[in-house]
Amino acid sequence: MAELLRGAPVARELVASLAPRVAALAERGVTPRLALVRVGEREDDLAYERAAEKRCLAAGLAVERVGLPATCRQEELVRALSELGARADVHAVLLFRPLPAHLDEAAACAAIPPEKDVDAATGASLLSTLSGAGAGFAPCTAEAVVALLDHYGVALDGAEATVVGRSLVIGRPVASLLLARDATVTTCHTHTRDLAASCRRADVLVVAAGHAGAVGAACCREGQVVVDVGINWDEEAARLVGDVAFDEVAPLVRAITPVPGGIGAITTAVLARHVVEAAERSRP
Hints:
Number of domains: 2
Strand order of the largest sheet: 1-11-8-7-5-6
Strand content: 15-25%
């Protein structure tokens, strides 16, 4: 059976490193505050909201939850984001995505001030991630993947890495972060002709397909490290599952992240780090 790359120890290490920084902010009279903005009640959004709030509160941060109905109008969402962005006591704003289909996601994200965008929702932060230049924050989940690989000593320099998924939320940003660490990166998507072959070549396989069980045994081989970024709600089993068919893949590969218990735990710790950094950058 593969080694389980659990996220909890990585998250604990990240959060512990924040303690002196939070204390220094407290001396300035500043408590880092995160606003979580959710539209509707998707189960995966609710799960992440609970986890993010728990992690941030444990790190000494303040959290404000803003829930809007799934039927809310565009102007309601933009107004809520703009009001949070204008508040001096709110240092970071995170909008849960994807939004319901009737809402313009790009317009909503544009209402978040770039300096408070801690999950690369705005073009400025995303450009920083993709270009490797600028002061924007990388998407928390993409950064969490690299943090996990570093913690467990997975070499990236010169490694063959395959990313399944090309979204601007996870797929492309994580590919850019891996490239910045000198990995040779292949990005796969729905038009990839032989997905299994592309995946099997990888030393490090990152799966962010957005579909439960999208990657199975045919895509994997001995010696691989598999990072499952997926979080899907399995109605039949009434539980969260990943994008990798865990029971098929775990007996084959060297190491794999569980779902839950893998990247999700680290993502909230990276989020807390971004909130602290945003507070540090804010005016006294």
